[in-house]
Write the structure tokens for this entry.
Amino acid sequence: MSRIAIVAALHDELASVLALMPDEHRQTVAGRAFWVGHLHGQDVVAVLSGIGKVAAATTAALLIQHFGVQRIVFTGVAGGLGDGVNVGDVVLARCFLQHDMDASPLFPRHEVPGYDRARFEADAALTDALELACDRMLHTLPQRLGAETVAAFGLHTPRLHQGLLISGDRFVATTAESQALQRELPDALAVDMEGAAFAQVCHDFAVPLAVVRTISDRADDAAHVDFPRFLREVASRYSGAVIEALFT
């Protein structure tokens, strides 16, 4: 049986995944906790990614080399960048780029030295399956969240977006930074701190990767102030629901 990794960015999101695993047991490797078990009969390893590209790359390599995973699914939150990418929407990554990679003038800006490319692709088949899971999750979202949460965060018509996810070792939370990224990378839908690192490692090991991100804010001066509530009442439920939909 093939083994799949479920990676979350934050503790509440991982907890929603672990709640679906009836027999998980914890292993610690390189200071990281990994939960090994099953989800709807599928052999699964769940783990927190760590924050930033280096932590994410270490986690990805451990999943592949130590735990022998053959597919990786990443779920978490991100800041929205693209037009119409709003709080409560979902971004499904089709490709990844490190927005802070700059080895110029030796290489073009954003190109990863030694790879002759700036963008790394998500696995098409696994991402297509995750797209169907996202559609199912969004269809049942109002019942899952409840009227009070839907009203509090304006989640009446959440949408699924697909395209470029950009990553960097900088938390983007000002309008100036957000607008600079939009000008430089106009097709970027959202920004995070881990996705592109996972994509590069998965490219190196030829392991399929799919990444879905819930938009928690617009990565600007008006970023939502009640993030803990959003994480608890929205993002964690998105993560658990989409992973369950993927496996059923």
